[in-house]
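Notes to self after the call with IL:
- keep both proteins in one doc
- input above output, always
- annotate only the second one for now

Protein 1:
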Amino acid sequence: MAVKSLGEKYKCNVCGNEVVVTKVGGGELVCCGKPMEKIEG
C-alpha cells in the first residue's frame, strides 16, 4: 500500500515494528521482506 498522507501508521505483521509517516514520498513501506499493513489510530 503506497503512503498517501502525513501521520499514517504502519505495522509489520512479522516482527511488530510500527512506523509513523513524517514525510510523504508515495512509496510502499516494506519490513521483513513483506509490505507493511496500514493501521488506524
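Protein 2 (the one to annotate):
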Amino acid sequence: MLKLYADFNCCDEQGRIWLNTVGSLKDIKQHENVLEEGMKVLLYMTDEFEVCGTLVFEEIWLGIPDFSTIRYYNSDDAPK
C-alpha cells in the first residue's frame, strides 16, 4: 500500500485531508503514474501515526481517512 504524507490540520469541512502540502506533493510525485480515485493508501504524519485512507481527486488529491485504522508509531503517543 502506498504511503502519502498528510497534514491532518489541512482538511475541508467534510474531514477530507488536502494532499497539497510540500510533503504530500513530494510523495504524490513519486507515485503519480499509479494514483487513481478510490485507491486505498496509508496517510501518515511523520513520527506520529498513520491511518488507511481513500483517495479522491477534486482539482487536488484529497484523502478520506479511516480513523478506525489509526496506528501510532510510539505507543506512548496513543490516547489512554
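Annotation: The two ends are 28 Å apart (CA to CA). The CA atoms of residues 20 and 60 lie 7 Å apart.
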